């Protein structure tokens, strides 16, 4: 989020759209790869919608073409898009992966989460002051 705000202040909107579109293409492809891996590793799992395997494989082929073409035609934009994605890695390790955090770090994460919920009107905040009301 911070990287996006910096890009919006420094760059133009067209460049930001290019960064986000590359990130979206990358995430869609990884999702389809996950679907195919799950169908291979866990074939008996319940699936409310069943699709012929040729559909995700065809999509994946087109996705690979678009991704390779994007990497070839605009490597800087793709590189910045990857850097934007990688800015989430420290947040993941701080918030999710690190299990035995000190109480002060947990309180900080909870307060940032509550502030973000209030700012974006995403969900009803589950903060300490909400419990008092």
TrEMBL record:
Gene3D superfamilies: Amino acid/polyamine transporter I (1.20.1740.10). The keyword rRNA-binding does not apply. InterPro entries: AminoAcid_Transporter. This is AAA1 protein. The keyword Transmembrane applies. One of its GO terms (molecular function) is neutral L-amino acid transmembrane transporter activity. The gene is Slc7a10. Keywords: Membrane, Transmembrane, Transmembrane helix.
């Amino acid at each position: 989020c911070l990287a996006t705000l910096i890009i919006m202040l420094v760059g133009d909107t067209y460049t930001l759209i290019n960064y986000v579109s590359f990130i979206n293409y990358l995430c869609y492809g990884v999702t389809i790869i996950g679907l195919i891996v799950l169908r291979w590793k866990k074939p008996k799992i319940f699936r409310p919608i069943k699709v012929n395997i040729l559909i995700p494989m065809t999509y994946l082929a087109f996705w690979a073409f678009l991704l390779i073409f994007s990497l070839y035609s605009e490597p800087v934009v793709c590189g910045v898009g990857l850097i934007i994605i990688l800015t989430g890695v420290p947040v993941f390790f701080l918030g999710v992966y690190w299990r035995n955090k000190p109480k002060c770090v947990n309180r900080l994460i909870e307060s940032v989460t509550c502030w973000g919920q209030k700012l974006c009107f995403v969900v009803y905040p589950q903060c300490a002051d909400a419990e008092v009301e």
